[in-house]
Amino acid sequence: MITSARGQCSKDQKVAIGVDVGGTKILVGYVTEDGHVLESRQYSMDRTSQLSALRSIDEAIDHFLQLFGDGPPAEGIGIGLVGHIDPEAGVWKHAINIPIHEPIHLSEKMEKRYGLPVTLDNDVRCATRAELLYGAGQEFKHFIYLNLGTGISMGIVSDGRLVRGAANYAGELGHMSVNTVGPRCSCGRIGCMETMASGGGMILRAMDLLSSYPQSTLNQYASRLQTDRIFIEALQGDLLAARIRNEALGALQISLTNVVNLLNPEAIIVGGGVSRDKSIVDDLEAHLRTTALPPAANALVCIEQSKLEVGRVGLVGAASLVWGGGINETHR
Amino acid sequence: MITSARGQCSKDQKVAIGVDVGGTKILVGYVTEDGHVLESRQYSMDRTSQLSALRSIDEAIDHFLQLFGDGPPAEGIGIGLVGHIDPEAGVWKHAINIPIHEPIHLSEKMEKRYGLPVTLDNDVRCATRAELLYGAGQEFKHFIYLNLGTGISMGIVSDGRLVRGAANYAGELGHMSVNTVGPRCSCGRIGCMETMASGGGMILRAMDLLSSYPQSTLNQYASRLQTDRIFIEALQGDLLAARIRNEALGALQISLTNVVNLLNPEAIIVGGGVSRDKSIVDDLEAHLRTTALPPAANALVCIEQSKLEVGRVGLVGAASLVWGGGINETHR
């Protein structure tokens, strides 16, 4: 998938290689310092084991360089990864969707292999960096990047800087408990957001409830059920789909009001697959305006879908790690 | 209440006047740049009206200067106030405990009256500044200052900087909803922390339930009931007191696990009247270690009572506003 002519890159424009490593696919691309993707290609991830996953990443970059290695010389490689990352040490510490059970010094390994500086960060923090540099950050100093996808997480920007926390682990909104009588989460707690409002949680919840709704049109999808389908059927009046959608929306309403009261952002920028249902974003905005504390609600300019391309935001943010700022300025 | 000999102040030591304005009392003091209180005096607040409240502040500072005005020349006045403050504009925007319904340019008014630079901030942010400069901040870059008093709020420090939010209103933990079947809060939502775990909330809850617990020893205190008494009677086995304490602890457990997952702090520093019950702080630490997500729990070094004097932390933080940093470095 070559996405734009290489000719768009002027001779003076600096270029980095970005790598966005997700649970099922790896996106590799040439990205300019101002956030334009010159070339990109998608590869599949073999997550059978830690070894196979690391081999998939190597092979993806190798193949990309074979195709485009005669392109502009890259200043470095920036890699966004699911899971827990130590950007300073260049270590991929742990992941669940991809079986990373042993911490690996990925940047050192990659620097040896490719002879370029390599920087790592968590994928949601990469997407938040992309918003900060090329999207919402051009308007807002204080914002939340909310990723509604298979899981739920967020990036926090305060005064133009990423809030990373002590171990680069801030932003686990998916594990905010909002319902003392809700379902039990894989983390052990009751009523976590993720069990009700993530893509994965909604599908599990629908599966659990299918037998109680024998008339539901969702029965015909069974194991092939996707969240898009739940939203469509909810609008068509399917009772189970409407219940799943309403539970998701309810959990988002409570948790985001909590977040607005706690962090007082100017904007909430919503990305990830579930955000494509604009009615969810609009419902949330209307709810927050009336339920957040007045000074926090008044300061909230908007809650809106990301203006960056949903499939590329992680890639662009990963590449931008090469231009620095992400570690030195915001993480000690 | 003169608290220490003026002789402790060396000639080179810079001094500021700190003013800590609470719902019932005003504390005024001379504080050195390294956070030592040289003199302090407590005055009462007349909160009959906005006018009477402002007059109380003037009279407190006037009287303090009459007593100690021949002391070291102060570099400025720093004032910590309940409610919503705009530190850049020097405006006290709104408060509920003290009836501030019309925004007032307090710093301009005070600068004219006293001929000194005047800086304002919210009281919990002042206490968090004191921790940052003179307490927990000496050990930790990422911490939460949790104020458990009549209300509940918190200050957030990320990478050594205060997280203020867009309108200097971040930190409203008291209005994190954690219980979908809990009591209705004055903010309109269900199950806010403050209804269950604040001093004010616990007392209201006890009053509501007294008639269902005719045997409870709390009946003899009625309108004079204090949270200290609830904790003492809970330990003695009183069923109502134990219920109130357990509900408070449960709400704190859920909300602080949420906060640890969201912000990944190294430490939670607990101040305010309710924090004097060390068993609450110890229970919370044990709970967080097992319920927060492992990377967040592992990064949490401690949850502990503030080492700064509970009655002075706001005063010291208010005075420290005079030395800057609070606005220019962390708020735009």
TrEMBL record, chains A, B:
InterPro entries associated with the record: ATPase_NBD, ROK
Recorded superkingdom: Bacteria
Parts forming coiled coils: none
Family: Belongs to the ROK (NagC/XylR) family.
Name the record gives this protein: ROK family protein
Protein species of origin: Paenibacillus solani
Classification lineage: Bacteria, Bacillati, Bacillota, Bacilli, Bacillales
